[in-house]
């Protein structure tokens, strides 16, 4: 099962809207087939592993990191494929909450006389599939918020200089995180200030994450890296419902617009995330800026917080990592549980999970 989970993780950021599943077929103590969900979500892990195994799958044990699907889509149900292959036993890490599955995959296997064991390394599997589960359960993707700041919580000087607060090792780790998510999301201010590409670089990635920009008024430079490369790597623009014709130049460049609700003069991040989930995204990596980060925190939609702290101080005149949040009492402040602290080059990386 450890191998099945490891295989599945290799598909993170590459298989949406489907879950990143791994499957291992074992016969007489020998691995005869193994696979993960293919890029783009098809084919699933199970039929690929069974194809590798061939006739050796008959009487074998299949280890799967998520309950096999039970519904007909572009391909037959994986549960029935396992039955037809003649496997004798299926070990499942965790069940699938998708209403089209939700125990039905297990029932198909059991009705065929196959021994089924559920719950092996379940906690790991639930963490790995958290994005898919979030999209199914709460209708929004899993959100990882990344902050890279000085010891006093600044992300740039008063003049806007920010390259580079953290070192090359931290920046490389950020690219690795981008690769594990379906999309990279930033606010309009980040695009205006930095003209970022938001791609994964120098890591051999062939399938780039979607680039998402949140901008109510579309007050963005029409000629920027994102528009120039929109036909190569997808760019989605979350805009206000009143965008009207202002979206036209972006649409002509190949950018996809997502109309979102506006609350108190800003795009509702809840509405934006729901729109991204409807388009199939399961995991979103947000890189700021301060206004978007604060909005995500205030709306309690941050599932994981990653903070890179650099050993320098800029002072109060520097740009804060978080915009004003209107918090008067400490009891109102969003709080997270510390899960990990590591040194990355000359910087410190801390990971926090929602309470």
Automatic annotation (TrEMBL):
Pfam families in the record, alphabetically?
A: dCMP_cyt_deam_1, RibD_C
Cofactor note from UniProt?
Binds 1 zinc ion.
Keyword Lyase in record: no
Q: Which UniProt keywords apply?
A: Hydrolase, Metal-binding, Multifunctional enzyme, NADP, Oxidoreductase, Riboflavin biosynthesis, Zinc
Q: Which residues form the CMP/dCMP-type deaminase domain?
A: 1-117
As cofactor, the record names: Zn(2+)
State its Enzyme Commission number(s): 3.5.4.26, 1.1.1.193
Note the superkingdom of the native organism: Bacteria
Per its record, the protein catalyses: 5-amino-6-(5-phospho-D-ribitylamino)uracil + NADP(+) = 5-amino-6-(5-phospho-D-ribosylamino)uracil + NADPH + H(+); 2,5-diamino-6-hydroxy-4-(5-phosphoribosylamino)-pyrimidine + H2O + H(+) = 5-amino-6-(5-phospho-D-ribosylamino)uracil + NH4(+)
What pathway annotation does it carry? Cofactor biosynthesis; riboflavin biosynthesis; 5-amino-6-(D-ribitylamino)uracil from GTP: step 2/4; Cofactor biosynthesis; riboflavin biosynthesis; 5-amino-6-(D-ribitylamino)uracil from GTP: step 3/4
Keyword Membrane listed? The answer is no
GO function terms (MF aspect) = 5-amino-6-(5-phosphoribosylamino)uracil reductase activity; diaminohydroxyphosphoribosylaminopyrimidine deaminase activity
The record describes the protein's role as: Converts 2,5-diamino-6-(ribosylamino)-4(3h)-pyrimidinone 5'-phosphate into 5-amino-6-(ribosylamino)-2,4(1h,3h)-pyrimidinedione 5'-phosphate.
**Which protein family is it in?**
In the N-terminal section; belongs to the cytidine and deoxycytidylate deaminase family. In the C-terminal section; belongs to the HTP reductase family.
Name it: Riboflavin biosynthesis protein RibD
* Native species: Marivivens donghaensis
């Amino acid at each position: 099962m450890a191998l099945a989970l490891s295989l599945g993780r290799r598909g993170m950021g590459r298989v949406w809207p489907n879950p990143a599943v791994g499957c291992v077929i074992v016969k007489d103590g020998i691995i005869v087939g193994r696979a993960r969900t293919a890029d783009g979500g098809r084919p699933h892990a199970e039929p690929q592993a069974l194809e590798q195994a061939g006739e050796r799958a008959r009487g074998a044990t299949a280890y799967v990191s998520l309950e096999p699907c039970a519904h007909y889509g572009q391909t037959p149900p994986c549960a029935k494929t396992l039955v037809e292959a003649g496997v004798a036993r299926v070990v499942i890490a965790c069940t699938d909450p998708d209403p089209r599955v939700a125990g039905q995959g297990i029932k198909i296997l059991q009705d065929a006389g196959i021994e089924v064991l559920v719950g092996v390394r379940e906690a790991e599997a639930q963490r790995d599939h958290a994005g898919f589960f979030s999209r199914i359960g709460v209708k929004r993707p899993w959100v990882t918020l990344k902050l890279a700041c000085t010891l006093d919580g600044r992300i740039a000087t008063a003049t806007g200089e920010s390259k580079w607060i953290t070192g090359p090792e931290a920046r490389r780790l950020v690219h690795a995180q981008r690769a594990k998510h379906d999309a990279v999301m930033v606010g309009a201010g980040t695009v205006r200030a930095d003209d970022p590409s938001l791609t994964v670089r120098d890591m051999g990635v062939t399938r780039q994450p979607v680039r998402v920009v949140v901008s109510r008024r579309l007050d963005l430079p029409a000629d920027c890296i994102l528009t120039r490369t929109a036909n190569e790597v997808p760019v989605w623009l979350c805009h206000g419902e009143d965008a009207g014709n202002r979206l036209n130049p972006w649409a002509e460049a190949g950018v996809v617009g997502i109309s979102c609700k506006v609350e108190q003069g800003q795009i509702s991040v809840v509405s934006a995330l729901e729109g991204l989930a409807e388009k199939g995204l399961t995991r979103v990596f947000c890189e700021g800026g301060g206004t978007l980060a604060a909005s995500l925190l205030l709306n309690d939609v941050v599932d994981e917080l990653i903070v890179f702290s650099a050993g320098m101080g800029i002072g109060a005149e520097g740009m804060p990592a978080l915009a004003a949040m209107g918090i008067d009492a400490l009891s109102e402040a969003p709080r997270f549980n510390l899960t990990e602290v590591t040194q990355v080059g000359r910087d410190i990386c801390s990971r926090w999970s929602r309470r």
